[in-house]
Design goal:
CATH class of the largest domain: Mainly Alpha
Mean pLDDT: 92
Number of strands: 4
Largest sheet: 4 strands, mixed
CATH topology of the largest domain: Glutathione S-transferase Yfyf (Class Pi), Chain A, domain 2
Strand order of the largest sheet: 2-1-3-4
Number of helices: 8
Helix content: 40-55%
Strand content: 5-15%
Radius of gyration: 17 Å
Distance between the termini: 33 Å
Order of helices and strands: EHEHEEHHHHHH
Number of domains: 2
CATH architecture of the largest domain: Up-down Bundle
Length: 212
């Protein structure tokens, strides 16, 4: 299989980590949505990453759809998203919060990097920051309820942990969710545990600000 996209994207990264955890080898096409936009659109009509090219040539786009396929291939006993019930709902809700926080961080980056200074709208940026911080606070609360040595859902690492760690690391590196501004101690403990694992460190590329 071929995974398209750069690992500084938390969406590409969560797919790569998941494939590593499942023991699924892949070829990495380190393509940028900036310089390689035309090439990416040959596989992903929206020109977005990740895209996963299967061995038979079928292409899957959007990380959520890709993760669903990977879990299906891994089988119900090894799937990283609980199959049903309360744990599945909890995992999906936590993932939605983490993804939403990352998207609001991305909105802030785009506003600053691609919009001329005189056209930047501070009330919009403040709204994005508030939404991002609220989501992170809820993830911190969920982490605290589970305890420092526990995973977010159930007794083992799930996709909720992988997605949360990828999104929080992205936000920390890109928009500077600094400890003194937003402590989130329980959430940071969880993220540090994840980032110390080989599956995470293998696909960590520090985030750099895009050129305007």
């Amino acid at each position: 299989m071929k995974l398209i996209g750069m690992f500084d994207s938390p969406f590409v990264r969560r797919v790569a980590i998941t494939m590593h955890v499942h023991g699924m080898p892949f070829e990495h096409l380190d393509w940028s949505v900036g310089r390689d936009f035309a090439r990416i659109r040959e596989y992903s009509p929206l020109g977005r990453v990740p895209a996963l090219v299967l061995d038979d040539g079928e292409v899957l786009v959007e990380s959520a759809a890709i993760l669903d396929y990977l879990d299906e291939q891994a089988g119900p006993q090894r799937a990283l998203l609980p199959a049903s019930g309360v744990e599945r709902r909890q995992a999906l809700q936590l993932m939605a919060l983490a993804v939403g926080a990352a998207e609001k961080g991305r909105d802030q980056i785009y506003e600053s990097a691609f919009r001329p200074p005189e056209k930047r709208h501070e009330p919009w940026l403040e709204r994005c920051r508030a939404q991002m911080q609220s989501a992170l606070a809820e993830l911190d609360r969920a982490s605290a309820l589970r305890g420092a040595s526990a995973w977010l859902v159930g007794s083992r690492m799930t996709q909720a942990d992988i997605t949360t760690a990828c999104m929080v690391t992205f936000l920390t590196e890109s928009v500077g969710v600094a400890p003194e501004a937003a402590p989130y101690p329980a959430l940071r403990t969880l993220v540090a545990r994840c980032e110390a694992l080989p599956a995470f460190s293998a696909f960590h590329v520090p985030w750099f600000s895009p050129s305007p």
